[in-house]
Design goal:
Blueprint: H1 3-11, H2 13-16, H3 20-28, E1 31-35, E2 40-42, E3 50-56, E4 59-64, E5 70-76, E6 81-82, H4 85-89, E7 96-99, E8 103-109, H5 110-119, H6 124-147, H7 150-162, E9 172-174, H8 178-185, H9 189-201, E10 205-208, E11 211-214, H10 217-224
Helix pairs in contact: 7-10, 8-9
């Protein structure tokens, strides 16, 4: 791992809040994985392969029904860890995870995690914190679905996805199609297009093919509330 990779990992709230001992233990077992856009990292029903963190690019978490329709649940940005659910229950992967763009990942193999936890059971608490953070986001998402207007849902989702860009910048570029945004917010493609056109007219975003450029993260976040 180079210095740039370490700097990105340190931006993540969960990793940065862990003890130096746990950080070093994780990084000592880490491997680097690179994927091209549309490559699959793992599929629903596959065995647990370990824990991952995004170093560069964006990952897409989704599920597909029997008719082949994909429902996008979320996108995973740099400095975010994922894959911890199967660590706790020993079960299979719950969703499909693909590279939305060209991606560089940090991978902690499952065997290394189990060995680490066997020697240091106290670290289960640290991984429990990671899992609980995801649960809080899930509860917040369920509440948003029930209470927010369509425009608020779109603004909040875009604002959340733009957070990965350094705070010194008020802009962000998100690799995302309108259909994927519709799937994530449980809105129709037509509604998404109407809302994005309004935000574009307000100079908050700029629309491109398979890409949305956030021009004012602060104002977008305000509209979400």
């Amino acid at each position: 791992m180079n210095e740039q990779d370490r700097a990105i990992i340190n931006q993540g709230g969960w990793f940065n809040s862990r003890s130096n001992e746990l950080q070093l233990a994780l990084l000592s077992s880490a491997k680097i994985i690179e994927l091209n856009a549309a490559d699959a990292l793992f599929h629903r029903g596959e065995a647990n392969s370990g824990l991952y963190a995004v170093l560069a690019g964006v990952m897409r978490v989704s599920g597909v029904n029997g008719e082949g329709k994909e429902a996008v649940l979320s996108f995973i940005d740099p400095a975010i860890w994922f894959g911890e659910v199967a660590l706790f229950d020993g079960g299979l992967r719950t969703h499909d995870v693909y590279a939305q763009t060209q991606v560089r990942l940090l991978h902690i193999p499952h065997r290394a995690l189990i060995q680490l936890l066997a020697l240091n059971p106290i670290y289960w608490h640290d991984f429990g914190i990671l899992l609980s953070q995801k649960m809080r986001l899930l509860f917040s998402s369920l509440e948003d679905h029930a209470l927010l207007t369509a425009q608020q849902k779109v603004c909040k989702r875009l604002a959340m996805m733009a957070v990965a860009v350094p705070l010194s910048s008020n802009k962000a570029t998100i690799m995302l199609s309108q259909q994927q945004l519709a799937d994530m917010t449980y809105l129709t493609r037509q509604t998404i297009n109407q809302i994005l056109q309004i935000l574009s007219e307000k100079k908050l975003i700029s629309l491109h093919y398979q890409r949305i450029e956030i021009l004012n993260k602060k104002e977008l976040a305000l509209l979400a509330h």
